[in-house]
Amino acid sequence: MSLRLSTVILPYRRWNEGGRSTWSRAEQLGFHTAYTYDHLSWRTFRDGPWFGAVPTLTAAASITERLRLGTLVTSPNFRHPVTLAKELISLDDISGGRVTLGIGAGGTGFDATALGQEPWSPRERADRFGEFVPLLDRLLTEDSVSYKGDYYAAHEARNIPGCVQRPRLPFAIAATGPRGLRLAARHGQAWVTTGDPKLYASGTPEQSVQAIRGQAEKLADACATIGRDVNGLDKILLTGFTPDRARPLESLDAFVDFAGRHQELGFTELVIHWPIPDSDFAADQKVFERIAMEAPAQLR
Predict the structure, then answer these.
(1) Residues 178, 213: Cα–Cα separation, whole Å
(2) pLDDT at residue 2 in the model
């Protein structure tokens, strides 16, 4: 199976000061999907410009025709399923059915406290995620939804006419733990991982591959438990968070080697960060564009 190549464009540039041209260039380079982060602020970018994911994707939809668009990832940290569903249906309509929702349980970063709440414990994040995903699934597939759970509720929430993509836009569920993997198996059209974060600082690329293989095996087990063929899920690796860090973007050959090792694990899509100078995602723009244009042909 050929490996799709996608990119993630962080929303830190004003639309008329590089934002528009970046999304247009992503389509020109032939990327399968261009994602963006869905945060209120993020890490070292907190004290600089940072724009909303859904408006950014809406603008990108208006200037592209073939490029798929998505989030990596949306989370319950500051989202509610009812309002998110309405925004996603609108975005899917504007884009002509080109949206993928990357979704995860959230974390303990700035988003976790921006609404004035205390950070949720890992158990509460998992509990909320376990309600959030099935409710969002219903909201995107049913005309009217009423629901009362421990964390979320909906009362006759209307979502007509629904998504352009049927029965709804695809979910790419980020998960490594057992509960998240079960959600991916039951509700996902794709699974997303960044690898094992414990290996980022001091692990080796070989250890990372082994850890990711283990994650994929657990996903297969979760699918088997409900009688689903794991091969029916796309498998997405968001790069930049393994011990390899930015080395795969140093040359075309380095990237093809990195991508080939993960293709052997069953991955169907790799996502690389659009270069950002003076950041963890710094890379040579010319090398990056050569990878975009030439690597897919070598990975068929």
Answers:
(1) 15
(2) 82
On whether the CB atoms of residues 135 and 154 are closer than 8 A, the answer is yes
- Distance CA(68)–CA(83), nearest Å, equals 22
Distances (CA, A) of 189 to 25, 100, 107: 27, 9, 22
**Contact (CB, 8 A) for 235 and 191:** yes
Backbone angles phi, psi at 203, to 5 degrees: -85, 175
pLDDT at 1 over 80: no
Over residues 66-72, mean pLDDT: 98
Amino acid at 281: F
Q: Tens digits of per-residue pLDDT, 214-233?
A: 999 999 999 999 999 999 99
Please report where in the chains the tokens 């945060």 appear, as a residue. 39
Q: Tell me, what's the pLDDT at 86?
A: 98
Q: How far is the C-alpha of 270 from the C-alpha of 175, rounded, in Å?
A: 16
Model confidence, pTM:
0.97
Three-state SS annotation for 148-173:
ECCCCEEEEEECCCCCCCCCCCCEEE
151-163 pLDDT, tens digit each = 999 999 999 999 9
Distance between CA atoms of residues 177 and 126, nearest Å:
9
Taking CA atoms, 254 is separated from 198, 199, 247, 262, 295, in Å, by: 23, 20, 7, 13, 10
Joined tokens for residue 102? 């990357």
Beta strand pairing call for 153-158 and 144-148: antiparallel
3-state secondary structure of 242: coil
